Amino acid sequence: MKYSVRIGLKKALVYTVSFVLCVMSVMPFLVMFVNASRENYDIQQGISLIPGNMLKENMQTLRDRQNFNVARGMWNSFQVAGLSTVLALYFSTLTAYGLVVYSFRLRKAAFTLIMATMMIPTQVSIVGFFTFMFRMGLTNTYWPLTIPAIASPTVVFFMRQYMLTALPLEMVEAARIDGSSEFNTFNRIALPLMKPALATQAIFIFIGSWNRLFEPTMLISSQDKYTMPMLVALLRSDRFRTDYGTVYLALSLTVLPLIVVYLLLSKHIIRGVALGGVKE
Questions:
Q1: How buried is residue 37: exposed, middle or buried, by Cβ count under 10 Å (0-12/13-18/19+)?
Q2: pLDDT digit string, tens, across residues 219-254
Q3: Cα–Cα–Cα angle for 10, 12, 15, nearest 5°?
Q4: Contact yes or no for 92/152 (Cβ under 8 A)
Q5: Distant-in-sequence contacts of 51-54, Cβ < 8 A, 24+ apart
Q6: Interior CA angle at 134 toward 132 and 135, to 5°?
Q7: Is 196 within 8 Å of 273 (Cβ atoms)?
Q8: Contact call for residues 33 and 252 (beta carbons, < 8 A)
Q9: Which residues lie closer than 8 Å to 246 by C-beta, 6 or more apart?
């Protein structure tokens, strides 16, 4: 009897803590969406969970803002974030595959060098990178924002750790014996096994690339190529600095695609966790 009561108390404690953490995670988004429908004066009075009636007016204010084109900003952000995600996932996973499957003399040194690049902050290398892109004539284009995603040390580290436990090397050897090429083995055998890890990294890469502001501000000069974070930064002008309703609406529009991407990929993560918990 005491044992069952103790188990019940532990479950209640776990559920309570999980509920509190869930509320803490959702509350900032809820407040942001609610404030997008409120006027500036009401927002300054305090937090409210009751939606206002100024959503249409705030949207009209955004439309009246010169050079603030939401559709164009969304499309520009999708181009940068989408291509960066695809390139980072495929080539970084391919790098991790080589570090796991192939045994060569400098394998540990190569992995250490890749991890060492994570210690270099973007602010240190941005001046040299900008000069290099300027000399190549690639400034004011999206190539400097997408091509470097091929070399993503964070993705390489994560995928390598995942492959060490989820990729049976016997399957790779069997494919080689059957005459499968290395790229075919990677594309047809390794990648399908990596779906949960790929979905997880896709969320992180897409969100990180979508929210990037520092590098695009340095490299993009034409306003018709501005991404959504750059357009939101325009609202910091004197005219819109205190118009919090408009700012919250712009932030809400920026966050919506990220929520959609998470909802689309989250099922693969949950499925991977469930499959990983099954012992054969």
A1: buried
A2: 998 888 999 998 888 776 655 456 788 888 888 888
A3: 110
A4: yes
A5: 52/245, 54/245
A6: 65
A7: yes
A8: yes
A9: 40, 58, 61, 62, 65, 235, 240
CB atoms within 10 A of CB 269: 18
CA distance 149 to 208: 11
What DSSP string runs through 136-199?
Answer: TT-TTSSHHHHGGGGS-HHHHHHHHHHHHHH--HHHHHHHHHTT--HHHHIIIIIHHHTHHHHH
Residues 61-105: tens digit of each pLDDT: 887 776 778 888 899 999 999 999 999 999 999 999 999 998 888
Q: What is the value of pTM for the model shown? A: 0.84
Residue 214 token pair: 């520092």
Say if residues 37 and 252 touch (Cβ distance below 8 Å): no
Are 196 and 277 a contacting pair, CB within 8 Å?
no
The alpha carbon of residue 199 and the mean position of all alpha carbons in its chain are separated, in whole angstroms, by: 10
Domains of the chain: 2-56 (no CATH), 66-234 (1.10.3720.10)
Residue with tokens 């892109």: 133
- Alpha carbon 24 to chain centroid distance? 21
State how far the Cα of 109 lies from the Cα of 278, in Å rounded to an integer: 35
Q: Which tokens in the block code for residue 234?
A: 């325009």
Residue 93 tokens, joined: 């996973």
- Residues 111, 159: Cα–Cα separation, whole Å: 12
Residue 234: closest CA among 72, 67, 63, 58 = 67
Q: Which own/partner pairs from 178-187 qualify as long-range (CB within 8 Å, at least 24 positions apart)? A: 186/94, 186/97
